UniProtKB/TrEMBL annotation:
One of its GO terms (biological process) is carbohydrate metabolic process. InterPro entries: 6-hairpin_glycosidase_sf (IPR008928), 6hp_glycosidase-like_sf (IPR012341), GH125 (IPR008313). SMART domains: DUF1237. This is Metal-independent alpha-mannosidase. The lineage of its organism: Bacteria, Bacillati, Bacillota, Clostridia, Eubacteriales. It comes from Caproicibacterium lactatifermentans. It holds the Pfam family Glyco_hydro_125.
Amino acid sequence: MPVGNQVVSLPQIQETTAGIQDLTFLHMGYKGLIDIRGDENEPLIHPFLQIGDTQIPFKSLVWNRLGNWIPCFSFQTEELTLRGIILTPVEERGFLVKLEITNRSSKPVNFTYGLCGRWASSWHCVNEDKMLSGEKHCYQSKWNHGIVFDMRCGTPMFAFAPMADQECKSTFETTKDMVDYRLARSESLATGQNCSLTVYWGIGFEEVAAVTSAKEMLRQGYDYELSRTLKWLDERALKFKDEKLTRLYNTNLFFCIFFSTGITLDTEELVLVTSRSPRYYVSAAYWDRDSLLWSFPAVLDADHNLAYDMLLYVFGRQQRNFGIHSRYIDGTVLEPGFELDELMAPVLALERYVDSTGDRSILKKPDVRDGVSRILDCLKKHRHAAVALYNTFLQPTDDEHVYPYLTYDNVLVWKGMRALAHLYPDYRELEQTAQKIKSAIEMYCVKEENGKRFYAWSVDLNGNYDIYDEPPGSLQLLPYIGFCTVDDEVYQNTVNMIRSPRYQYSFSESRFAEIGCPHAPHPWILSVANSLLCGRAAHCAKFLHDVKMDDLIACESVDENTGECTTGAAFATCAGFLCHAMKESKEGLDQVYEE
């Protein structure tokens, strides 16, 4: 169960124990994610309850999320009820854990409770995880009259520190490889009485920054931090007729916002990533497609200001390498390889922003104008000498193409040319370029088999083509993009082919029937979003109501029979595209449950 805010992510809260396995943050200087972890025996932070000398095991925890985001848990012993909440307050550099205990018995109960845990290791995460080799320190600090943890590699790398709202006994033991600690408070409750303890955790570059981050939340108080965060969540939430879809939408929306965007600890810059969770297999790096075609529409639906800041980052830090497979958060190349869909993503996001907000001021930003020029210059290098089609090296799955001219990718170029003609008076001639692209697609990318015309997936202009589809850039989306209508015969023939039982990756006869591909040969959640956007609301309503995914959070693919995650857990940008598709299809989804 993950939770997070703009700075801190808690990607792995154990539902069986309420243990916080790790905490993560983004770091520009290290080009990615830093992950502070416990180990397999002890999480980083773990609530505990002790009566006498006996530690009470947490059993049969009951979980829910306040505001469809904030994790809360409870459990009971014969005498006591314990309730906990793990809150990552918005716009704070840290998080808090509150524990509340009630005596349900007929006699007084003495007990000790609080937080304990183990800092076992720290990791640098960008696709692959590498353990950091700096020195771990834990010590008493005059700044919080408690303990502070920090990592040093010659100079400080980061620090984190707790501050409690009640007096606690702080103890710790440091060895060469790990730090074990305990924050404990003893209480005696009469029948019906209750008590609570809130521990605020701050992070920062070093001791003072970490402690004062915790102190700021302590001064504001739990009630303030909770109410402000719930208000923030409520302002962005959406309600569906079906309670399950409401929960699924909002949890995925907040997961998208807080795990596909983030503010770096060292430079305080907003950056975009595939996922701030190390559970996602290519975490903490930037893809134009993932951030701008998938997460951006959902963010724009919910928060125009954040969407604006996303575009400034894209046309600032990232514009130098537009269209290159993947990059670090500082804009430098991670994985080389040209992708046409990624090159066009910034233009399509820019048009979407202007059309949604009416704010044209962003078009005048020097970085935006320079970025558009860079995209047009790059396009010239990939245009066929005689035909208005553009090649790509990698497909939307990031796998190498079969033939260089992809129908879907060229539809994005067509859309992008029309967008620029619409956005900028001095690019109006690109409307003619768009028309030439459309004509070329209809001439070279439309094929015929068994008397039926359809869109090929890719062609080489020498007569070769393939029948195929990829959820990250599906031919199902052509009407959504505006290239054709849903009832267009060529489009209908195409969809029927790739959704047919005869197509290897259709999964059309499975319980969870959506398209997959060799990259992950199971139904993709992106394909559910594609289906929603092309009008298959009734089919998708049942899929979404029954699917488990990654504990209701979007993943890359699910098992076709159980609906459980098979690949790509904690896929934050995919969560965004799913939410956008659900919002666009809300009327159709609600109608299913009205009936």
